[in-house]
Write a structure and sequence with these properties.
By secondary structure, this protein is of the alpha/beta class. The protein has 2 domains: 3-210, DHBP synthase (Alpha-Beta Complex), CATH 3.90.870; 233-313, Rossmann fold, CATH 3.40.50.11030. Helices cover 31% and strands 19% of the residues. It has helices at residues 8-19, 41-51, 66-72, 77-86, 105-108, 122-131, 151-158, 197-204, 269-285, 302-313; strands at residues 3-5, 24-27, 32-37, 60-62, 73-74, 91-97, 113-117, 135-136, 164-167, 178-181, 188-191, 209-210, 233-235, 245-249, 260-262, 290-293. The strands form 2 sheets. Strands 1, 2, 3, 4, 5, 6, 7, 8, 9, 10, 11 and 12 form a 12-stranded mixed sheet that branches. Strand 2 and strand 3 (32-37) form a beta hairpin. Helix 1 (8-19) packs across helix 6. The longest helix is centred in the last third of the chain and has 17 residues, at 269-285. The protein is globular and about 60 Å long. The two termini are 37 Å apart. The structure holds threonylcarbamoyladenylate and magnesium ion. Residues 138-139, 147 line the site of magnesium ion.
Length: 316
């Protein structure tokens, strides 16, 4: 069985696999990651193969501490401020690569910048400590699928490609990290995520822009317009449910007979974020061809939830 309880013994085995150039899936507080030694180009290539991911999509490098991050990339003042406030945690900073930075070129897809994150999840931290190398890890799903929030999701998507899936139950936040570019004067949000934009603005003491890259020139190269896609069609801001549709509810649900998942009966956006991807997978599995999605308020994590839903709803 590839899925194993994330005991310290299992983490030691996983670290061994990483150091040997293998692939390991592990939980972070955001979603499950597909990890490899970021300094080993062949191991990193195996990540792209496992995901079936286009090569131009750079990966996040996970490290155990601020000091390790600072050794790989240059931290501007905004970068330091955000790192102090949110690391360890669900924030990824895009930094200028330092000369001599040992991260494989393939990780950054030839860019002279580097996305770095110090995760807070105890299993991710234990794995980083035990393997003692920076770990490149995208979300552990096949390219184009929604991110995995459980070990079972990972097994279903890419199980055959990994040596080990460390299991520690559902990812607590359920939404990917917020990616912020701090290479320039002003910090720019490249991907909305588990740290709300308002919280970043509060820490920086001024508003922050969210970059609007189109599908052809996405600001964060991974943000292809249609990305977090279930097989079913999504109909957003639904005020009723059509025949044959499943319902993704928020708050008091619309009247409905068929498959339904309520992201948060009490209208809590953090709870909704945590449940979002598992709900999309489950409603997809119900066989419904379309999913009616109730309105989600555009505040706090609602902004990131709506971003994912809009991408999933876009037809190609
Ligand atoms: O929560 C997360 O961030 C998860 C966990 C495993 O850490 N990882 C994740 O990785 O979502 P991935 O590969 O699915 O998404 C990484 C995002 C993409 O949008 C990618 O374009 C962006 O980070 N990114 C990576 N390196 C970048 C760089 N140098 N410049 C701009 N964007 C970058
Ligand atoms: Mg991803």
């Amino acid at each position: 069985m590839r899925i194993v309880d994330a005991t310290s013994e299992a983490v030691a085995r996983a670290a061994e696999a990483i150091r040997g150039g293998g692939l390991v899936a592990f939980p972070t507080e955001t979603v499950y990651g597909l990890g490899a030694d970021a300094t080993n180009a062949r191991a990193v290539a195996a990540i792209f193969a496992a995901k079936g991911r286009p090569r131009f999509n750079p990966l996040i490098v996970h490290v155990a501490s601020f000091e390790e991050a600072a050794a790989l990339g240059r931290l501007t003042e905004a970068g330091r401020t955000l790192a102090a406030a949110f690391w360890p945690g669900p924030l990824t900073l895009v930094l200028a690569r330092r000369p001599g930075c040992p991260i494989a070129e393939l990780v950054t897809a030839g860019l002279d910048t580097l996305a770095v994150r110090v995760p807070g999840h105890p299993v991710a931290r234990a794995l980083l400590q035990a393997s003692a190398v920076p770990i490149a890890a995208p979300s552990a799903n096949r390219s184009g699928h929604v991110s995995p929030t459980t070990a079972a999701h990972v097994e279903a998507d890419i199980g055959a490609h990994v040596q080990l899936i460390l299991d520690r139950g559902p990812a607590p936040l359920g939404l990917e990290s917020t990616v912020v570019d701090v290479t320039g004067e002003a910090a720019v949000v490249l991907r909305l995520g588990a740290v709300a934009r308002e919280d970043i603005a509060r820490v920086l003491r001024h508003g922050v822009e969210v970059a609007t890259g189109g599908a052809d020139a996405p600001a964060s190269p991974g943000m292809l317009a249609r990305h977090y896609a279930p097989a079913a069609t999504l109909r957003l801001d639904a005020s009723d449910v059509h025949a044959g549709e499943a319902l993704l509810a928020f708050g008091t649900p619309l009247p409905h007979q068929g498959a339904i998942i309520n992201l948060s009966p009490s209208g809590d956006l953090d709870e909704a974020a945590a449940k979002l991807f598992a709900a999309l997978r489950a409603l997809d599995a119900s066989g419904a061809k379309a999913i009616a999605v109730m309105p989600i308020p555009e505040q706090g994590l609602g902004e990131a939830i709506n971003d994912r839903l809009r991408r999933a709803a876009r037809e190609e």
